[in-house]
Write a structure and sequence with these properties.
Mean pLDDT: 83
Order of helices and strands: HHHHHHHHHHHHHH
Number of strands: 0
Helix content: over 70%
Structural class: mainly alpha
Number of helices: 14
Largest sheet: none
Shape: globular
Radius of gyration: 18 Å
Strand content: under 5%
Low-confidence stretches: none
Length: about 260
């Protein structure tokens, strides 16, 4: 908290850095030559494995116990994020990287209404104006992509479904991050996402092995670069910024 008082811009800086890392995720999923659910499972699995040692060291050094409420918030957020990843990545593989990502990032709509109902937040006119501008761009995106390769409509619908779970992830994370530190929250939520995605891999009978070397490299890059570094930055900012600011900022992913 002392760092925030000295530099109130820090949460915004980490949010932008996280956005830059996150913006590469859709392209990597498209290039992985694996089912989207498998790619995102390995993203979460490798992310969990990488975070184990830092998490254990952090808990040993910490003099406080993990908040029980925070753990449940992290599990709920991670589970929602797992379903979000499954729908979004399947949409990216089925159509293209841009449109499902844009539709998934319509989460600010759900966050906006959810934060009003749950947290009693009052949003300024600029918030709603920004959402209207973002939504008004969808017909332009559809007109550009409708004749492209892949099932664009299916990708858009899957992205829209992903956006609902993405919004729920933000709404769980806002109170969760207030009672749990960044690293602990990221580890628990990432592990929860990997469990959900593993179950979905089994349900849809996808294979977990036998992929090309470049595919495994993409899995590793997603795990380290996107999930560990990118989401650490975003989770950090969530501890100080409301979901109604974080979610709209991440609308920049498809633009980047």
């Amino acid at each position: 908290m002392k760092n925030i008082r000295n530099n109130p811009a820090l949460p915004y800086i980490t949010l932008i850095i996280g956005l830059l890392f996150m913006a590469n995720a859709a392209v990597l999923v498209k290039l992985s030559d694996a089912p989207g659910i498998v790619t995102t499972f390995y993203r979460m699995f490798f992310g969990t494995v990488i975070l184990i040692l830092p998490f254990v060291i952090h808990r040993i050094k910490s003099k406080t116990k993990l908040s029980q409420k925070g753990i449940w918030y992290a599990i709920a957020a991670g589970s929602c994020f797992g379903f979000d990843m499954a729908l979004w990545s399947t949409g990216v593989v089925a159509s293209n990287a841009t449109l499902p990502t844009l539709m998934a990032n319509m989460a600010p709509i759900w966050v906006g209404f959810g934060s009003m109902l749950i947290f009693k937040e009052k949003h300024k006119p600029g918030f709603w104006l920004g959402l209207i501008l973002a939504v008004s761009g969808l017909p332009i995106m559809f007109s550009q992509d409708i004749h492209g390769s892949g099932n664009v409509i299916l990708g858009a619908l899957l992205g829209l479904g992903a956006g609902f779970f993405y919004g729920a992830f933000y709404l769980f994370s806002q109170p969760g991050r207030k009672v749990m530190d960044t690293l602990s929250y990221l580890f628990v939520s990432t592990a929860s996402s990997s469990v959900v995605l593993f179950m979905l891999v089994l349900v849809f009978d996808h294979r977990l092995v036998g992929y090309a070397q470049h595919t495994w490299l993409i899995f590793a890059v997603l795990g380290l670069g996107v999930q560990v570094i990118g989401w650490f930055m975003i989770n950090y900012s969530q501890g100080f910024l409301p979901a109604s600011i974080v979610a709209p900022t991440l609308l920049g992913q498809p633009i980047i």
